[in-house]
UniProtKB/TrEMBL annotation, chains A, B:
Annotated organism of origin: Phascolarctos cinereus (Koala)
GO cellular component: basolateral plasma membrane; chloride channel complex
Record's keyword annotation contains Repressor: no
Family, similarity comment: Belongs to the chloride channel (TC 2.A.49) family.
Residue spans crossing the bilayer: 64-84, 104-124, 162-193, 214-238, 291-315, 340-358, 410-433, 439-461, 481-504, 510-527
Subcellular location: Basolateral cell membrane; Membrane
Protein name: Chloride channel protein
Quaternary structure and interacting proteins, as annotated: Homodimer. Interacts with BSND.
Amino acid sequence: MAPWVKFLPDMGPMMEHLVGLHEGSSGNPVALQELWGPCPRAQRRIRGILERVKRQLFRVGEDWYFLVGLGVLMGLISFTMNFVVSRVSHAHMWLYREIGDNHLLRYLSWTVYPIALVSFSTGFSQSITPFSGGSGISEMKVILSGVVLEDYLDIKNFGAKVVGLACALASGSTIFLGKVGPFTHICCMIAAYMGKVRVSALGEYENKIKQNELLVAGAAVGAATVFGAPISGVLFSIEVMSSHFAVWDYWRGFFSSVCGAFMFRLLAVFNSEQETITSLFKTRFRVDIPFDLPEIFFFILLGFVCGIVSCAYLFGHRRFALFVRRNWITKKLLATDKPVYSALVALLLASITYPHSLGRFMASRLSMNLYLDSLFDNQSWALLSRNSSPEWPAEVDPNNLWFEWYHPQFTIFGTLAFFLAMKFWMLILATTIPMPAGYFLPVFIYGASIGRIFGEILAVIFPEGIKTDDGVINTIIPGAYALAGAAAFSGAVTHTISTALLAFELTGQFVHVLPVLMAVLAANAVCQNCQPSFYDNGIILKKLPYLPRVLGRKLNSHLVTAELFMNPNITTLAKDSSLDEVVQTVTSTEAAEYPLVESAESQLLVGIIRRDQLLPFLQAEPTIQASRHQWRLHEVLAGGCPMEPVTLQLSPQTSLHQVHNLFELLKMQRILVTSMGRVVGFISWVELKKAIADLANPPTPK
Amino acid sequence: MAPWVKFLPDMGPMMEHLVGLHEGSSGNPVALQELWGPCPRAQRRIRGILERVKRQLFRVGEDWYFLVGLGVLMGLISFTMNFVVSRVSHAHMWLYREIGDNHLLRYLSWTVYPIALVSFSTGFSQSITPFSGGSGISEMKVILSGVVLEDYLDIKNFGAKVVGLACALASGSTIFLGKVGPFTHICCMIAAYMGKVRVSALGEYENKIKQNELLVAGAAVGAATVFGAPISGVLFSIEVMSSHFAVWDYWRGFFSSVCGAFMFRLLAVFNSEQETITSLFKTRFRVDIPFDLPEIFFFILLGFVCGIVSCAYLFGHRRFALFVRRNWITKKLLATDKPVYSALVALLLASITYPHSLGRFMASRLSMNLYLDSLFDNQSWALLSRNSSPEWPAEVDPNNLWFEWYHPQFTIFGTLAFFLAMKFWMLILATTIPMPAGYFLPVFIYGASIGRIFGEILAVIFPEGIKTDDGVINTIIPGAYALAGAAAFSGAVTHTISTALLAFELTGQFVHVLPVLMAVLAANAVCQNCQPSFYDNGIILKKLPYLPRVLGRKLNSHLVTAELFMNPNITTLAKDSSLDEVVQTVTSTEAAEYPLVESAESQLLVGIIRRDQLLPFLQAEPTIQASRHQWRLHEVLAGGCPMEPVTLQLSPQTSLHQVHNLFELLKMQRILVTSMGRVVGFISWVELKKAIADLANPPTPK
């Protein structure tokens, strides 16, 4: 009991109760003052309730409001970006329409717009930061696996990425790029910024964990707010960026994503784009009998086709990116005049898609969204065009989007095939433009068109459907094949299967769940065996540090032990060595941290000294400087130089498989190997990567 | 080159090629014989292609055919079980119908059937194995976290569980139990059996990993094949059973689940139950504007309501289970006459649900599936019953299931409320029956009825929908609230959010994705804060070993280091100790393994000796027995006693948070703590659990 209580003997019992309540927090005489306020009892009760509510709110994980904030903010940004982009493209379309029939003017109005946007996007974003090009998912994957990429998540890149991405998107289907990748990067920037803001009173290690948790949530929110698809957004981000993850992170990702997706769609309703919150690309497939059972085989076949095409695409993408980097013209352009390179590529792409030239045969007047809307159409164009041969309308007819795909001579098959052939290399070309842009949506659309042509061919072969016994006619829905194709192709390119779920979330219908899933699995089976994913391509091309996966098939990884591949050349600092020796060691090597051992002879591991923490002590005091050979390291340590404990050590008998697991699970960069307490070596990514590479191609014994 | 080749000089080069091809595999003269077969070139080429295909197939992970087999087999079992169950319940319904109007006979026919089934199920399954009662998910959760529960996955329990579960299901909605839990257990048994079958030439550690991988896939398949819902099956199993998981396992689970779900639904088509593969409980909600925007708030409110009810349910369940265990009557019955206890409970439940008594007010003639079908109805019963007051039909009318819920005096609100009130305690009572049965489906149905009554009330309050500005009337769909209620309540009870996805996969419609997700999150927010999940309840009640979660809020877990909570009383064996001392140590302690140290004085850790491997050496040779005090332990080791390497050691400075992470990620049971090579203690689940408990309730300093 606080000492002053005894001076108020008549209030004793009550005070005791009060003090008991407050003892934990302060125990100061504030409690006394409360007694003089009005209704002390009610006040206390209300305060108690508030306290309890606060405790409850904080129990969920005290950063849940950061998650809400992250979700809502990103929904807001995503919507605003879409809004601006749609206004800009409307202006472009308006200009193109109003400019009259002069072909040169029309051509100019069609091409200058994207050229200007793309080169501005490149120039602006590259002037702020060189990291801003590309999708950013490869880098995020590396960061989430524990590597520190300096400045990559710095908030100062935010503007570059947002403005650059908006310009890239505004150039529309001419350049044919998407939003997912850079937007995920933007989300992660915000999440990292929030992580820095919420630095609490904890230690460095804990803050790191908290920041990483926020980053994982950020990655999920990014994918979720672009499509307004919370479930697949979370799963996609997990599949693309992690090899292991915690259910705890998954829940937090869901929570944040739902907030983001809700905000994103809510704003669309407020903006009168939609009447209520519904799917973005609503389909109207037949629900009763969406497909005949034998069609399952065609869906699986489509999956294999998508898998093969995705291999060709990934191979082409990697090769072309290397070519652009090595060819002396493009190399020079990309080194000095990135905007010029972008402008040239945009000019080429825009000229090809000009609607009065080749663009006529690839429905180039459709925007990215309209492409998807048209391809997911529930009617069969092949059967429709048998009965009618519509004119090419002067403007895109939103109720009959398939008119864009129809050409009297080429028919819809000609245009779809031409679209596939041209977009294949145009898409690869577009990915070399050094501006912030996503590559998921174009791949999704490309897959949808593969599925569409597949479905239309089936619809022509079986005009009355694949009959079942009872004679009921269920015509084939090419739109369903487009859905399966989109999911399968994008799934194969990114090595994920949650694209199937994305397809359902985007369209709001779940009736084709099994066929689409089977197509996605088939496509993944082909592509995962033959090519690295698109994002792994990015890691390979950018030479980012990344740990290869040890697949189940590499069984000998259990037989290789740490002593075979660890690096035995490790520099240690002994407690009993003189400062002269320490200075010599530190200046002759460049390690960021040194294992501290008991004595140079015993090499018994005691802890870890970080270079940046040791240096000030070595340079600090002139008295020490003068007589360095007399001082010992343990005296410096006693003088306040911090030493970090070693939390985990391996033994030389640990298998490669276990080491790999540890590195993946604990996101480690470097670990010490000790044998009976003696430091015998260390393992870092370099050693581990080499050991894994040796597994696949065992070094030939000489 | 093989020596016999030189005798065939003219065939030299060709033979060389051939031998080169086969050298790796055998190098025996089989290659010679091939030359005399027809078309040796074509043969070779075909063989080469086959070899390459085989290699490709095996690349995916050489046990993918096990995954297919697991999926297909479980789909088959699930379908067969459903088929048998539906036949048995049809027979029951037929008997009940045909028995005439004599009330006593009708009552008997209604009650005897479930009593017989339930008591047979209890007796049969308990006679084979005492583990067979309950859902099995709690045990699977413990097993997947790395604990070995002897015999729990033994294939000999398979029959007990399958037959017991089939009987439990056949007793229908009277007993009101489901299938998910025991079926997951059955799947895991099969997976464990397959894992034992596929033991490869690898070491023990590798086989363990492979078996665990199959087990994870088995858990996913179990949930997926019950509902034919592959996506949510995988996610549900992950959320319920793991705290961390690998994307690699998730892909394998998906693959196996899709095979299983496909098989399950395919058989339904072949059996003419469905025309093609579609959802189980197809809904027909309005697609254009499924809900008005303000309804989102009601959905969230419903989520909170479900969360609160789920807390009450979980609390009641735990308390009642303890009561049954302590009360002397039930205690005695459960100890000696389990079938009698089951029969008594079944008699009570069946008497209440007898349709001509209280069952009339709780639609008890509906089967489990029809309950869901009726609750997800897209019409509003409250509005329907205003215009017409239907008679209670003599039999269930499959086209107007809501007639079962309608009562002229009580109206549908009365019956729904009565259903909720009665089923609350009936469900808790049913969970105490010691037979194999799942508790997910009943909870799902219960949640659907909470949602239904909520939706019907809203439909009455806003008969013309919540009007938007433009005057379009969108009536409220109570079925959508039933969907949200089912997902939210079952999600809260199991602490998962993938139940939302399950709701969509079951109904085939995705239009309510955001409101349902928000309801599920709200329900989880309430329940996760107040009560352990249903399966955690099981762990608590059965006193299974389980590691509590360290939530983000327990921040001081970073400040508690291993030396504060490790167990320093560790018995080591020193290399230089005499066999007399070793025998004394081994007989006086009961540890399964002992750390081996260099000498009793230095205590430097060298490796680990397992008790069961050491004992034979101590008991073996009489010469050693006679002169035990002369022999030293290191001589026994040199004589062949195996010693295992220590792969991982902690230091006394490792924080509780890190230790917990390691235990969770690596599924460890025990880890040694060393300081400068010396063994200073160990940490096992016991110490960790105590340390975590102390975090929540810090021990008061004396």
